[in-house]
Input
Amino acid sequence: MSRFLNRFRRAGKLLTEVDPNRLPKHVGIIMDGNGRWAKKRGLPRSAGHRAGAQVIKTITEFAGNMGIPYITAYAFSTENWKRPKEEVDALMQLLLEYLRDKEQIAGRDIKIRIIGDRSALSDEINAEIDAVHEYTKDRTGTTLYMAINYGGRQEIVQAVQDLCRKAQAGSLNPDELTEDAISERVYTEHVPDVDLIIRPSGELRLSNFLLWQSAYSEFWFSDINWPDFTTRDFTQAILDYQNRDRRFGGR
Output
């Protein structure tokens, strides 16, 4: 623990208050506020996205050292294609650079999985995604799911379509359809539902993120723009999560 504390001094004494036996198994992060961070500094929005990419590396490694097995980060939504072409192109270039940085990607011993509709991504990006999946497949630390061209509604529709095809083929009785059957067909598959969703930047909404997996999630909001988000902020989110009474509909 002392080596961990020394590496992440910004978390300060807060880290010693975390109960290692009550950590969330799965944390979702909506990486919001990159553009606002850049605008405040007179920089192009692409500079904010680049700064935000560095932060997710730091936070994922920190979460892994803390003992959290799964992180899902919302990087690019199905709605983000509506942004100006210049910004979208910059984001795709940043994604390509991120994927190519195989020695440093998301920190040591981190397994990377890209989730979302890959059909709209370039062949070059898809080739790098396959390469990263292969390169990190045997890592045993935290798994980072990067949601790229991802939409929660799209994810549920895709799962239901798959089940409909099975019913049409006669291999599934619709009366026996269960929640587990859908959970096994969303992008995160057998990963536990998300326990905690963190959204910085002052927005108070899900924005089509992990709709199926967040049925009983706790939420943590802040006014911090994502590039300013620190390990101390992450630790505070974990402590607030641990101080809540999760009843899952019971008493």
